[in-house]
Every structure is written in structure tokens, then in C-alpha cells.
Amino acid sequence: MDALDLARWQFGITTVYHFLFVPLTIGLSVIVAGLQTAWYRTGRHEYLRATKFFGKLFLINFAMGVVTGIVQEFQFGMNWSEYSRFVGDVFGAPLAMEALLAFFLESTFIGLWIFGWDKLPRKVHLACIWAAAIGTNLSAYFILAANAWMRHPVGFTQNPETGRAQLTSIWAVLGNPQAWSTYLHVIAAAFITAGMFVAAVSAFKLWRDRPRGDDAPAGGERELFRKTLRVGMLVTLLSGLLVVYSGDHQAKLAAAYEPMKLAAAEALWETEDGAAFSTFAVGDTEERLNHVDITVPHVLSFLATGEASGTVEGMNDLQAKYEEAYGPGNYIPNVFVLYWSFRLMIGLGLFGVAVSALGLWLTRNRRLPGNRWFYYAAIAGLPATLAANLLGWIMTEMGRQPWTVHGELLTAASVSPGVSLGEVALSLSLFTAIYGVLAVVEAGLLWRYVKAGPAHLVPDRGDGADAEDADTPVPAFVY
Amino acid sequence: MELPVIWFIAIAVLWIGYFVLEGFDFGVGTLLPVIGKDNTDRRVMINAIGPVWDGNEVWLITAGGAMFAAFPAWYASLFSGFYLPLLLILLALIVRGVAFEYRGKIDTDRWRAWWDRAIVFGSALPAFLWGVAFANIVRGVAMDADHIVTAGLLDLLSPYALLGGLTTLSLFTLHGAVFLTLKTGGAVRARARTAVTATAFAAVPAGAAFLIWTQLAYGAPWTLPFAAVAAIAPVLGALLAVQGKEGWSFTTTALAIGAAAITLFGSLYPDVLPSTTDPAYSLTVANASSAPYTLTVMTWVAVVFLPIVIAYQAWSYWVFRKRITREHIEPTPAYGDGGSDAGTAATGPVPLPRGTG
Lengths: 479, 357
What we know:
The complex is a heterodimer.
Chain A: H1 3-42, H2 45-79, H3 81-115, H4 122-151, E1 156-158, E2 165-167, H5 170-174, H6 177-208, H7 219-257, H8 259-265, E3 272-273, E4 277-284, E5 289-296, H9 299-305, E6 311-312, H10 315-326, H11 335-362, H12 372-399, E7 403-405, E8 409-410, H13 421-452, H14 466-469
Antiparallel strand pairs in A: 1-2, 3-6, 4-5, 7-8
Chain B: H1 3-30, H2 32-35, H3 39-49, H4 53-70, H5 72-81, H6 83-102, H7 109-139, H8 159-183, H9 186-218, H10 224-242, H11 246-268, E1 271-273, E2 283-284, H12 285-288, H13 292-319
Antiparallel strand pairs in B: 1-2
Helix pairs in contact in B: 1-4, 1-7, 1-8, 1-11, 4-5, 4-13, 6-7, 7-8, 7-11, 8-9, 8-10, 8-11, 9-10, 9-11, 10-11
């Protein structure tokens, strides 16, 4: 174990942790803005209650995303100084743009939204949450353009004197096919997760407060959560279509630009024409072959090339090719992790989408299923889709190894030479400890506020009160 | 003017924006247990910065991103070379940011006391460490021919650097106290005024000593007036606050922070990180910068978007321009079961958290 290993663990842990909050922030900002728009348009009290309730949960999550995000920017310089030195000319620009164009927008308008309920005209206040949501969704583009450049470096040359990468076209970097394709995939996955969050919370509330025996059912709240359950599931289902479309595109880009990643994710050792899609494999990374491989013929070739008989390169051939191009070394990423993260990502993500499709059918025409499994499945959809997000990133990032910048810079050459093992061990332990504590705190708070429900934020006034609502000031969130 | 010089100035501007804006957030946080005698007072203080602290912090993220893009070698050497101080700053900013959001979410004294500690620690520590860091940048650090910083943690804690830390801590605290006189009413405002005088007694001598040292040891002739303004302005700021001219006082402390930062960046130029090992190893504006194309792109982005950012941030300050008083603070909007000691203790005075005041 050396400083490089620990620095990689630290980047992995802090990034995966950061990404627990990011998809919810991306998706929930828009869902909350949508709910508030519904309130603005119709003046119906239940939409205000939904906005406030999910808005509160959104903010509890948002805070964690913000504070863990600062670590991400600092970490490039702190732990990956040689990477930063090599690529800053190219990689720094989208990061600076992210801060200037997106983070300012997001942070300023979220402040206006939280504290501005009773200070701003309703239209302006509504515009604030939309501005924050746009900022959030815009920030994802810049950081993904930066990430895409690492996987498919474009728009640069290497300065022969300094050896550093030098930007030649910002439009090439921002228009990188990997950038917009990844953006669609990541945003769609974020909306799947956020939709599932809304659906899971609603399902929990509906199941917990279900009418039992002679108890009078809590009418207003049930109606509210029946609606938000369907809103969440609809968001997940529609995003599911986009995630499949963009995922297919991602596979084709991987075949073209990162064939090793695709081969490893499929445990494909030898180049094949009309390659089969593996569903279950037991392989040997020492011998570089599979002992067991249960496959569906031609599907991989079709996914990768669009033709059932297309050629898909295998790891052994790619390894030979890379050794010739870049010198001796192991260019095969961790096949076990890639193979299984790929399958779990697809499986868990589609589970959420399937639950949503089924749920929308079962709740049609104001129905609510009585079967407990329906609610359990909707609740399970949240951790499943969140895990799918993380597994997707684990596959993407570990699949790029041993490179930080594909074909240009090795991870081993990217680490800070001046930062000692002890220093990284200290930072890794402190980040892990504090992140662990905060995770428990955050989960506890979400749990409390979900249990408490919207009645604690905005009292239920019954259906007749909608008309008065237009003139009554809405209290702001305060600290 | 050449692009790298323009970007050196731009980065100085971003850091000045950060220090002037988050400086008062840090000051308010540091003073939380001193001025906030009970929970309502503390909530007055936190709500005074509540709508804006997050936007203020983005100035730091933008400054960091701009250093990465415009001076990759500076960003790389500095951030890896100052590993432990930056680690502490990150941890502090994490707990502080979460504390603002989570403090009011559960209505018990114990819960709030923990987050109050996080706010005080998370405000005072970065306020101190930014001064230490910038003093070291100006003073230079041991750095080899490959621009890898070889200085250890103890090397970063020289008397000059510690004085720098004391300066930013006391100056930001003064700035925060003045901000509270401007933005709050009633008892909080009155205690903030007392705090202005008290912190001025620390900020004025520390700041003067640090600026004189900086000017004599590292300064350029043209930085002298800025150093002088930075040294004198806090005195003026304190006097104005005591007279009740709070807006002018705040302008003056902001000016002091800005002038001090200009003195530091001016003393640094044309280096961006001097090497004490051998001046030939120093990182300079010329040898640390990105190529002209990147700087041109960044210039266009900054010229178009920075004014827009400043406009909407200014608007948000205008929206929240009114003073906050205890009357504005509604009963704690915290939910859940409230914990065992909620209700009875919620309205009473809250004991100061131990070990933070």
C-alpha cells in the first residue's frame, strides 16, 4: 500500500459519497420547481404542501452535496498535482466555467428561494427555484465535459517543450460526443433516482398511514401522496427511456474510444465477430480466459456496433496493441469489478423503471393497491436506483484505468509526488470518519422529516381554502 | 497588458471577493457564542448570513477553478504543497456548511450545541488558516526544481505566517461584527457594537504589524499606499461603527480586507509561489500560466459572466437588506418528536457550548 493506492481510495470514496447526493439534487430541484409551478398555476393548496415537504427534504440533501463538492475541486490539486499540472490548461477551463456559470446561479438563487417565500412576489420566487435548478443541471454539463475529456481527450495538443496538454479548441472539449452522451445518461439516471425518491417517500407515507379497520383515513394527505407517487413514477419511467437510449449510445462510444473498458465490462478476452452478450461469467484474470460464460449470441456486437455480426475487440488483442503503442504494462482494468458493476447498474436501474411502469398502471384511475409488496417495491426502488448511479461511475472510472487521461497520462504518473503516505492516510481517515457521521445524521434527519410529513410544514386547510390562499403570505424556511 | 498578468489580477479579484464576502460569514460564525446569548440571538445571527453564505463560498470555488485553468502549475504546487492546512480548511467548511442547514432541524439544546461548535470551529479555523496560507505564499516555501513543495507542516507555521493568520482571523471577526451591527437589531446589534471595539483591539495591532512586515520584507513601492490603507481602515471602521454609521463602517472594513489582499498579491508579483530553496525554482506568472488560447477563452467567459453574477448577487443582498431582529424569529420550525427536553427549554436561554467560547 503506497500513497498512490490511498489517494485512489480517497478519490473513490469521496467521489462516490459526493454522488450519493448529486443525483437527488439534480432531479429534485426540477421536481420541486415543477410542484411549485403547479401551485403557482392552479393555486391549489396541496401543491404548496407538496412543494414545501419535498423542498425540505431536497434542502437536507442539497447541503451535503454542496459541502462535499468543494473537496472534489481541491482534491485535484492536493492529491493529483501532476495530473493538474499536465492537464490544467484543458481540464481547468470547464471547472472554472462550472463555478462561474453554474454554481453562482445555483447557490445565490437557492438562498433567495429558501428565505424569499415572504419577501418576493410569487412569480419571482418561482423563477428563483427554476434558476437554481437550471444552475444545478448546467453544472453537471461542465464537469461531465471535463470527465469526458479524460476518457476521450479532444481539442488539445501536447506542448513539446513542457510536455503539458494545451487547449486548442474549447468547442471540441464542450462538444465532445462523450460529453453530451454522458450528460444525457447521467441526467437521466439522476431523474430516475429523484423520481424514485419521491415515489418511495410517497409509498412509505401511503403504506404507513393506510386506513385500518374503522380508523378514518387521513383524506387530504393520502390524496397528496397518491399524486406525488404518480409524479415520481412518471419521472422515473420517462427518464428510463432516455437512460436506455443514451446507454446504448454510450456502449457504441466505448467501443470506438474505450474498447478496453467495453471488453472488460463484458469479460471478452478474444476479439470476436458477432460477439455474444455475457449474462453470467466466471473468469480467470491470471490466465486471461473465462471458465464459465453464459451468453446471448450476437447481442454484444449489436450493442457495440449496431450490426449483429460486427467486430468487438477482446482484451488480449487490445493488451497487445497497447503494449506496442505505449510500452510494456498492464492495460487491463479490474475485470471483476467492471463486469459486475455493469450488470448490477443495468439490473438495479431497470428495476426502478419497471416498478414505476407497473406502479403507474396499478394506480390508474385513482386506484391504490392494497398489496404491501407494491409499497415495498416502490421503497426498494430508491436504494436500487441510487446504487445503479454509483455502480455506473465505478464502471466508468475504473474502466479507464490504468489511465487518468486515456492514452495520454497514467494514473500512477498523476499523483502528487510531494504528498506522503502518512498525509493521505490522515486525510482519508478524517474524510471517511466525518462523512460517515454526516451520513448517519443526514439519513436520520430525512427519516424524521419524512415521518413528520407535510402537515408540520404547511397545515392542511381542507379543500375549500384554496381561494384564500392566494393572498396569504407563505412563511419562509428559516434556519 | 499580457494575458497571464490579466489573469493574475483576475485571480486576485476573485480572492478579494471571497475574503470580503465570506470574511463576514466567518466573523459572524466565530462570534456566535459571544454575541448570541440564547438560541434566538444565535438564530438572528445565522439568519443574517443565511441567504448569502453559500453564494459567498462560490467565490472560493471560482478562485480555485480559475487558478486551475489559468495557472495549472501554481494550483498543482500550492494545493499539494499546503496539503494539511487545506485539509483542515475543507473539513471546517464541510461541518460549517452542514451546520447552518441542520442546526434548526431538531429542537433540542444538545443538538444545537453540537452544530454551534461546528459553526465556531468551521468559521474561526479557516479564517485563521487562510492568513497562514497567504503569508506563506508571499514568503515563499521550500520547493525543488520540479516545483514540488518540500516544506513540512512546521515550516508553514513561521512567526510571519502565524501573524498572517492572526490578522485574517481578527480582521474577519471585526468585519463580521460590523456586519451584525448593520444587519441586525436590538440586543444582538448592541452586543455586536461592543464586539466591534473588542475585536478592533486585536485586529488593528495584528493587521498593522503584519502589513508593515509584508511591506518591508516583500512589498513593492506601489503596494505601500495599499498597505497603509489596510492598516488604518480598521481603526476608522471601528470608530464609524461606534458612532452608528454602520454602512460606512462595513465599507471601511471591506476596504481594509481588499487593500490587505492587494498588498499581498502585489508583493507576490511577478512570482506566484516563490521558492526559498533557490529563486530559480520559483513559480512565476510567466512560467506557471496556461497557454494564450485558454486564457483568451477564460477572459471572454469572465468578461461576459462575472458582471451578470455580480448583478444577481447584489440583487439578492438587496432583497435581504432589512435588519433581522428577535421579532423576526418565529418559534423553532423543527419537527419530529422534538427530543426529550424540547418544549420546556426551547424558549429559555441556551448555555454556551463548552470549549468554544
